[in-house]
UniProtKB/TrEMBL annotation:
Its cofactor is pyridoxal 5'-phosphate. CDD domains: OAT_like. The keyword Magnesium does not apply. Keywords: Aminotransferase, Pyridoxal phosphate, Transferase. SUPFAM superfamilies: PLP-dependent transferases. It comes from the Bacteria. PROSITE patterns: AA_TRANSFER_CLASS_3. This is Aspartate aminotransferase family protein. NCBIfam families: PRK07481.1. GO terms for molecular function: transaminase activity. Belongs to the class-III pyridoxal-phosphate-dependent aminotransferase family. Pfam families: Aminotran_3.
Length: 445
């Protein structure tokens, strides 16, 4: 398998030479919150698949729903003249679930990048239909991650994900993220930093001209960029600015929806109602590629207002509303609610965050610890705390490897070690992750 992998599989986001030098772990099985590799090694999955397996790998109701749906109706499209009963039921349930977020309609997709693309396209259409065709630009946060389609890549805040694909969508601008450890203002107070970032947003809008901007897209807690939760004043501030300038607010909740932040959605966590919300990942617990863009009633109504609106959409996927994905999502939503996953996410998230802080007291390599808003936590590693020089790849790689050997899979993203375990993680399992990390750090200290 290792040899075949090296010669045949092109790994996403990885340089082929890095894959050769550092072959990936070949996962062959998973149960509960544990994964097993090809060598028979079993570890606690601190990554939760890829931030998506919120309910663990043994979710029988989802498995049953998928097999029953496969027996009954394995596929039928929802393009124009047809639909399927599974997707209708799901849309109704999502409508109830996201009612407190002010979102009533679901546009179905096949994953996170599709959801982002859909939201950007709908945002442009929305303004065009309303007679504001000049509103075409998008604003987003530096360090934000919004997937890999050309639209999503254009709003990605990390230049590494953009430069190879330029020229990208014109008119995308990125404003400083409320990232206390490193920011252009040298501001370490989260509340003051939030205000500075909001002023930067206002300045950018004034510079571009509000009537040229379609939407602002943001993750309620920046995920892949290194788990950066903003001060509580930030997202409400963004909501206010967008409303004042007629700019749509798109919440990219591909990671944060369905409990990860310790609330049912990231927007609800900060008390904000977005105009659109991108979801995917945990919507099926990773069991089926699926996503939904949830849309506010007032936005949906614009599309339904006249013939122009209806004719203008021209967007959708063969797998929009796939019945097997819908069946998986219905069962997943029911389990997510039954298990009240945000409560455990908040408790175990706090345990992991406290554990990170203790490790920071012990190891100088840890420059910053972030998260604690539910079960997404990160530590940023530096070779020197005062200069904040990012850690080298070899050292962080060794820590990851030794942590794995000691019993836990953790994610490395640049200089960050990130945790996003299944939200059903127990106290003992959280402790296993922390002691494995301790062993990982001990190996390089
Ligand atoms: N948006 C966010 C916030 C994400 O974290 C991701 C994936 N990590 C995406 C979009 C893209 O999702 P996908 O990989 O399913 O296309």
């Amino acid at each position: 398998l290792k040899e075949m992998n090296a010669r045949s599989v092109w790994h996403p986001m990885a340089h082929p030479a890095d894959c050769q030098a550092n072959p990936p772990t070949i996962v062959t099985g998973a149960q509960g919150v544990r994964i097993t590799d090809v060598d028979g090694h079993e570890v606690v999955d601190g990554v939760g698949g890829l931030w998506n397996v919120n309910l663990g790998f043994s979710c029988q109701p989802i498995k049953d729903a998928i097999t029953a749906q496969l027996d009954r109706l394995p596929y039928y499209s929802i393009f124009r003249g047809t639909t399927n009963d599974a997707v209708i039921q799901l849309a109704e349930e999502l409508r109830d679930f996201f009612e407190p977020d002010g979102l009533s309609r679901a546009f179905f997709t096949s994953g996170g990048s599709d959801s982002v693309e859909t939201s950007l396209r709908l945002a442009r259409q929305y303004h065009k239909i309303r007679g504001e065709a000049g509103r075409v630009k998008f604003l987003s946060l530096k360090k934000g991650y919004h997937g890999t389609h050309f639209g999503g890549a254009s709003v990605n805040g990390n230049a590494n994900f953009r430069t190879a694909y330029e020229p990208l969508l014109a008119g995308c601008h990125h404003i400083p993220a409320p990232y206390t450890y490193r920011n252009p203002f040298n501001e370490t107070d989260p509340e003051r930093l939030a205000q500075l970032c909001l002023s930067a947003l206002e300045d950018e809008i004034a510079f571009q001209g509000a009537n040229t901007i379609a939407a602002f897209i943001m993750e309620p807690v920046l995920g892949a960029g290194g788990v950066i939760p903003p001060h509580e004043s930030f997202m409400p501030g963004v909501r206010d600015i967008c409303s004042r300038h007629g700019i749509l607010l798109i919440a990219d909740e591909v990671i944060t929806a369905f409990g990860r932040t310790g609330s049912w959605s990231g927007s609800r966590h900060w008390g904000v109602q977005p105009d659109m919300m991108c979801t995917a990942k945990a919507i099926t617990n990773g069991y089926f590629p699926f996503g939904a863009v949830m849309i506010a009633e007032q936005v949906a109504q614009v599309f339904e207002s006249d013939e122009t609106g209806r004719a203008a959409i021209g967007h959708g996927y063969t797998y929009s509303g796939h019945p097997v994905g819908a069946a998986a999502a219905i069962a997943c939503l029911a389990e997510t609610i039954r298990l009240d996953v945000p409560t455990n996410a908040a408790a175990r998230g706090a345990q992991l965050h406290d554990g990170f802080k203790s490790l920071m007291e012990k190891y100088d390599l840890i420059g910053d610890v972030r998260g604690g808003e539910g079960m997404m936590t990160a530590m940023e590693l530096v070779s020197d705390r005062s200069s904040k020089t990012p850690i080298d790849k070899a050292t962080i790689g060794k820590i990851q490897e030794e942590t794995y050997r000691a019993g836990a899979m953790v994610r490395v993203s640049g200089p960050n070690i990130i945790l996003s375990p299944p939200l059903i993680l127990s106290e003992d399992e959280a402790s296993i992750i922390l002691s494995a990390l301790d062993a990982g750090f001990a190996s390089v200290s």
